[in-house]
Amino acid sequence: MEPGRFFVTPAGHPYYNMAFDEWAFSRMGRNAIDSPAVIHLYSWRSPGITIGYNQRYERAVDRSRLDPGVPVIRRITGGRAIYHDDLEITFSLILDMAALFAAKPSLAEVNELISEAVLDTLKSLSIEASIVDGNALPAPAPVADGTKACFMSPTRYEIVTSRSKLVGGAQRRIDSCLIHQGSLKVNGVTACSAIGQEDGSQGRERVLGVNDFIRPMIASFSAKLALDFHRSRLHPAEAWQLDLRRRKLEKKPLEKRGFD
Question: Which domains does the chain have, with CATH numbers?
Answer without folding.
Answer: 4-251 (3.30.930.10)
